[in-house]
Amino acid sequence: MDPKQTAQQRGRQGQNGRRPRKFGKNNDQAKSGLERKLVSIRRVTRSYKGGKRLRMSVLVVVGDRAGRVGVAIAKGADVKAAEEKAAKIAEKNMIKINIKGNTISHLVYHKKGAAKILLRPAAPGTGIIAGSAIRAVAELAGIKDILSKVIGTNNKITNVYATMEALSSLIVRPK
To answer: What is the model's pTM?
Structure first.
């Protein structure tokens, strides 16, 4: 290839002779089979000498619906950038959850900060009886039947992290 060729003369090829990367869709996510859910979007500002800077803070839950789930929070200039950053961090920090059939193995109560989370196994066909924060974690973990109660706080971020800790504390007892 002649280095003096223009981009139009090279056609759709990049500098190294290959096609340029396609932006927009995250191909790595499609290959890995992971799904993501946005749980919380917040506007955060920081004061500087010249004024305030607006950023977006996003909480994302990532899971494969087969017992692996991760959660992360990240900030970015816009929602899309923050979501991508949070999803990447969540994928790195995924944990394995022990699932017994379509539900959890036993009742678990967990306290984190002001959030108190009660998770109870449910009969087949019950579905996910939970608020939005716990529901996101349970669905992406692959739990289909569960009863839950949040006591103490309405903060979605605290509730998601408390749910993650509660699910990671589950112990499968041998029969």
So the answer is: 0.78
